[in-house]
Design a protein that fits this description.
single chain; 157 residues; alpha+beta; 7 helices; 58% helix; elongated; amino-acid transport; mitochondrion; Mtc; membrane
């Protein structure tokens, strides 16, 4: 739901920027994007362009005041140093990169391949492939055999 995404972005913005009640062009773009996105609400597969627009424009529009007015910057002790527009722009760009599914997808695929590539051999090595069984636990034909009191069998993977 685009409106819940907008509310989430607005609630988690940097609150340095002051609030004014006049509707800007950016807010108008957000409304148009919300209407366009809502148009596809019943469609099973949402078009990539709509998703891309939603990702970029909602973050850019809802958090645009951070780039326009700047956000607070602090020193290493947490003391306020001032308000920076460059930090606001960097904040928005980092959020866009973080929410871009095309950037995150390769990381997910590579990490899954590494995890599965390591997990399967380790899980196979935890348990021996050859099991032991005492002759007395087997059928009568095996109990009469001379030799060891234990026999072995291949468990497989």
């Amino acid at each position: 739901d685009p409106s819940s995404v907008s509310r989430f972005n607005h609630a988690n913005r940097n609150a340095t920027a002051t609030k004014d009640n006049k509707m800007s062009m950016k807010q108008s773009i957000l409304i148009v994007g919300t209407v366009a996105y809502s148009t596809f609400a019943g469609v099973r597969e949402i078009f990539v362009t709509v998703l891309g627009y939603n990702t970029i424009e909602i973050v850019r529009v809802v958090r645009s005041k951070e780039a326009d007015n700047g956000i607070r910057v602090f020193d290493s002790n947490g003391n306020l140093v001032g308000v920076s527009k460059a930090a606001g722009s960097k904040d928005i760009n980092e959020t866009l990169v973080q929410r871009n599914p095309m950037i995150i997808a390769p990381v997910r695929h590579i990490s899954s391949a590494i995890i599965f590539g390591l997990m399967i051999p380790v899980s196979f090595s935890l348990f021996p492939q050859v099991g032991k069984i005492k002759k007395e636990n087997l059928e009568e034909e095996f109990q009469s055999l001379d030799g060891n009191s234990e026999l072995f069998y291949h468990r497989g993977l």
